[in-house]
Amino acid sequence: MLSSDDALLIPRTEDGRVLFAIPWFGRLLVGTTEKEVTVHEELEVTREEVDYLLRHLNRYLVRPVTPDQIVSCTAGARPLVSSGTSKDTRKLARDHRIELDARSGLISIMGGKWTTHRAMAQDTVNAVEEFLGGPATPSQTMHHLLLGF
């Protein structure tokens, strides 16, 4: 566990990933946001990934975290928007993009990051309002506190 209520960000690990550790209700959320997967792979947290995270995290902790202290794990994937021919996920932009299919009315939001979810939501609502032909209303999202803050 971290010895403070402050989060920890390790901006560059041995393979260039970013690692974070965030105290949360007496627990510690640890993760990385950079591991390329294909659409055919099962999303799971492997033993190798746990070892990787703990190896990097424990370099900065007075009391190392051990695998038996892990309460739960989660894995997920997000599609990144390619801006060219690069296949390297580290080189892809983390910006989001909203596309509108005028024929079907489908509004798609692609890319983005969990840390920009409010801006993504605001831009999506603005796109919906624009598509419906109504006036854009000022977003109230920044006035609502998130759980835990």
What does this structure look like?
- The protein has 149 residues and is an alpha+beta fold.
- The protein folds into 2 domains: 8-69; 89-143.
- It is built from 2 helices and 5 strands, in the order βββαββα.
- The chain has helices spanning 47-57, 117-132, and strands at 8-10, 19-24, 27-32, 96-101, 106-111.
- It has a 3-stranded antiparallel beta sheet with strand order 1-2-3, covered by helices on one side. A two-stranded antiparallel sheet has the order 4-5.
- β4 and β5 form a beta hairpin.
- The mean pLDDT is 83.
Instruction: Output the number of helix runs.
Output: 2
Order of helices and strands: EEEHEEH
Shape descriptor: globular
Radius of gyration: 19 Å
Distance between the ends: 20 Å
Uncertain runs are: none
Please outline the major beta sheet: 3 strands, antiparallel
Write the layout of secondary structure elements.
Blueprint: E1 8-10, E2 19-24, E3 27-32, H1 47-57, E4 96-101, E5 106-111, H2 117-132
Q: What tags apply to this protein structure?
A:
alpha+beta; 5 strands; 149 residues
Question: Summarize this, please?
Answer:
It contains two helices and five strands. With 149 residues, it is of the alpha+beta class.
